[in-house]
From TrEMBL:
One of its GO terms (molecular function) is peptidoglycan lytic transglycosylase activity. It comes from Phyllobacterium brassicacearum. One of its GO terms (biological process) is peptidoglycan catabolic process. This is Murein transglycosylase. The keyword Flavoprotein does not apply.
Amino acid sequence: MAFVAKGRILAAAATALLVTAGAAQAAAGCGNNSAGFSEWVQEYGSQAQARGIGNRAASALNNAKYSTKTINADRNQKSFKYSLDKFMQVRGGQTIISRGRAHKAKNAALFASIEKRFGVPAGPLIAIWGMETGFGSSMGNQNTLSAVATLAYDCRRSEYFRNQLDAALQLIDNGTLSPDAIGAMHGEIGQTQFLPASVLRYGVDGDGNGRIDMVRSRADALASTANFLRAHGWQAGAGYQPGQANYGAIQGWNAASVYQQAIAIIGAQIDGE
């Protein structure tokens, strides 16, 4: 998901993980630069193990590096301040519509099965897929655990990202996330850019192979996105333009109004509305 903060702060992701009292107190300090990060990581890892996190995840966390690139990206999210027309131009709205129609036709059976299961049509899913990663072509080049740990340590939104860090450690423990996974600057994962807590809560097996792979399986990524929207109030058969019943679910995906409007516009064009 593009964080909006990729502002998202995703409404559901904020509650996607139950945090124990011990977790809330873990490594309580924070910092606005790399000083102290390594010590903080070691303390956080030790306390995570005391809460039941396994050696595999704890070892991966100990290898996390402070990411200045992640901090810079977090402080410079300018595109969400554009007008709608400028945002559509910068994000390649017309290209997404054109390519999205082709993806809908090529994957008709997949989108039909997702709509039958979750009630979400192809258009908004394809709009999100295209806007987030160019249909899986650009999923990021940042170490996921380093990105999330950096933001968990950073003082600006440390509590929120400590939830995400706990989720990432759980995903590594259960084999859903590789210890050296690569993703976007805020720790977003896969073809539709879920933050770790959202993978933990809304990730589903879309291709029936018994596991969730948000990176290599477009079926898993798209079905999980539909599951996210349904959990945020999506009603099968209802409209998703501003003022319609399903627009609120789109708002749950991203807090930026231009992003919400772009999903609705691009989705409608792909769906032929």
